[in-house]
Amino acid sequence: MAESLQPVEDPNRAYVGAGTPPVIAPGHTFGTVTDKISAIVLTRRTPLGWYAGFLLAGSFAFLLLVSLTYLVTKGIGIWGNNIPVGWAFDITNFVWWIGIGHAGTLISAILLLLKQTWRTSINRFAEAMTLFAVACAGIFPLFHTGRPWLAYWLFPYPNSMSLWPQFRSPLIWDVFAVSTYATVSALFWYVGLIPDLATLRDRSQSRAGRVIYGMLAMGWRGSARHWHRYDTAYLLLAGLATPLVVSVHTVVSFDFAIGIVPGWHTTIFPPYFVAGAIYSGFAMVLTLAIPIRAVYNLEDFITMRHLQNMAKVMLVTGLIVAYGYGTEAFISWYSGDKYEGFVPMNRIFGPYAFYYWLLITCNVIIPQALWFKRVRTSVPVLFVISLIVNVGMWLERFVIIVLSLSRDFLTSSWGRFAPTFWDWSTLFGTVGLFVSLLFLFLRFLPMISIFEIRTLLPEAKVSDE
Amino acid sequence: MASAYLIATFADPEALVGAVEAIRARGFKIYDVYAPCPVHGLDEAMGIRRSRLPYVTLAAGALACAATAAFEFYAAVFDWSLNVGGKPDNSTLAFVPIAFEMTVLAAGLATAGAFLLRAGLFPGSAPKLAGPPVTDDTFAVALRWRPNAFDTGEARLLLIESGATDIRQTVGDL
Fold it and tell me: Domain B4-50+132-171: which topology?
């Protein structure tokens, strides 16, 4: 890579050495950045491939609609959930989706505060991914209540029953955590979009485009006074989103850790869940970024630098997760509690041992390949590893939830869980919804932050006197 | 309110900041500066005061935190106390997560709301553009012209010396 020897101005370069690929390919100007990114949205002809992809994803989203409709008419008995396995696919899927969302906030907020400029080309679609993942996550607990139309009972409002929610319950904490997370993520994403919406408004050839983007841009005109406040507001929102993202998966882990079920009642859960969330989230960002950059020819903006950095984040968080598995097993033996001690034995040798070993293979063994630079620089291999980690992280939640519930204290109350067709259709249905929303996003909004990419250009640099 | 403006455009932020400094040093008052991206050092050059937005964030967050904690205490201790597994009514630690989430929610909404309000941005607000390219690849400085307010010739000369690519006079509402 000869061109990588002249990278653009980039504060990271000092730390990572001169041979590292740049965060933006050389030769771009303000005009070309605007053209290249806005053209994807403003093109009059929607590519045929887009229709094909949207149709495929949309049909799975339709499957979700069918599954949920059937669920509401028949009740949650259509799922494989039973006593003792009262939480199964639904909560596994909920935790999996919420975890995926975390990478978006990490990239947009935490990496912003840490002044990691490479975040700039991936933050927009990672944030979109967060929003869509949270939407998919929310479906599961909502419909698991059985009567989703009464879900507002979870919020404290003056009611004729004169009852309040039980504020000591981690499930109520979860309601507040997830709804706050969804709201603040949407806010952060939208505020970040405003200047780009103004660019689209001013470049759109169609009247509808000018009106719609115009309404959404809210009269943004690039005034220096606005930029000044904008930067302050954006930093403040990043500062708020940072503790929020850590708190959300902590609260999700409390759903389990506050309970007394062996395998759940563990103090390591909060940090281990947060690391797992970031791990799975980065895997999903890679899974999406690799095809998107290839299809839309965005290799100039989503460079090998981004893919390599994300691979490194996956390696680190994967190791934290592996450490979590080790600690969990060690403490259950060290506690001397026979029920806790049974948990790792049940996982390793029990009826679901296959899934436990599959989880270890996906999350611990295969990602060790990321230690090698050859692997980190190979796009197809990265793509395959990211898919494997996505599966592994889903299995991790399945192992925690189903294995713990299926065999708790009394052997007489042990049971087994087997998913039904509707369990699978709801899971794949949410994947369809997620991908459909992503397709709409790619078509109608700039998938890369145009104004932030402008600030990365060498010509954007103002020398200090 | 239509006024006359002298608008100078620049191709890069370096020239823009230099021009802003030169114009202010000569005693001209800048109406506004327009840029397609945030420009490092422009705030100092324009003499913009530090934004007070953080105080809004702090106030909203502190208020929401206190109000939520007080409400949880009221609901769980006074209004409807429930004995759950013998845990104390006032389980203060258990009230922390919700108080924290509400703090972040209120602070976030207040920050975004205050920013939009203060900047006068709302759906339907007219984009008072100094020219469409300021959201693309062009930077602009606008001086408001009033009779005898400044010497147009001197201002033009100064802007050209600072590297302006184009200077024009417009009448409109910026």
Answer: Alpha-Beta Plaits (3.30.70)
